[in-house]
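User: Run a structure prediction on this.
Assistant: Running it now.
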Amino acid sequence: DKGRFTHKKANLVVDKIQGTLDFSTDDGLAAESLQASLLGSPVTVGIDTESVAGKQVTRFDWNGHISAEALQQWLAIDALSLLEGSTAYEGQLTVGGNKPLELKVTSDLFGMELELPAPASIARDQKTRTELTFDVLPDGRETLTVRLEGLGYSHIQLDQKRQLTSALVNFGSGSTDLQAQGGRVLVTGVIPELNLNPWYQRFKGQPVGDSEKSMLRWLQVKDLQIDSLSYQNYELKGLGLDLEQQGEGLRALLVSVSSENIDGSLLIPADSSEPYQLDMNRLYLPEIKSDNNSNSKRTDDPFGQFDPRQLPDADIDIKHLKLGK
């Protein structure tokens, strides 16, 4: 009265199965309200088989609860280690048809917490509609798409050995026609508000590992719009950001920004012995208010903790420079 079902491609193991399972060569598998255990928690499973374009397609539908730890172990995505708690979810596994496998998971993440600063933070009492779709293509390649309500979506492509080949990250509620090229992680979209202060406090002092350095070499930013970007007391409105890798192997990095107060580019050479190239059409800095108390620290200076001795060698060209209004 207890069974076990394993699907290696989806990395799913369903055990402690109890209930009635029907099977025939004509109609395939069918079941209602099977009780089972999946990812360490009880689930209720339904199975249905139908013919689509002359091929049998079997769907496994289930609902249950999942912990953040079990989710991270199942999907093997490092970023999920930032999640805590547990949540209710629904899953659907489709086998057969035009694709060998399609897996869909939906949840509102209520009861889970994402420990990141805004706009990426998720509170335990917050409902965030989330959809995850994992597809295995006929040639063995795989795709993973994750959509988070209010934040955006990502589309990841993997090769037959589950190695990353490209990824697209699109912020905001809109969609994009941009596509990531091979060997690139493309970031685009719209971010309404981004305060860098809590992000700096969250990650300062943490060492940069080889995986982070490798990911930086994949990174490309195109047409990313940030309505409000702030650091300390300095705010940029209507900022456009682009980042492009140039060359092969060790690549130079070209960062381009555009807003009312700042417009230009910074070229970071692949060869560390070469100078940086800063080319600005305009750079308007906020006025730094004087303080009669010499013992107090200025809190309105965006460069108050900046040490120019830490700057690398650079060739600088600023066409329009302004301080204050």
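The mean pLDDT is 86.
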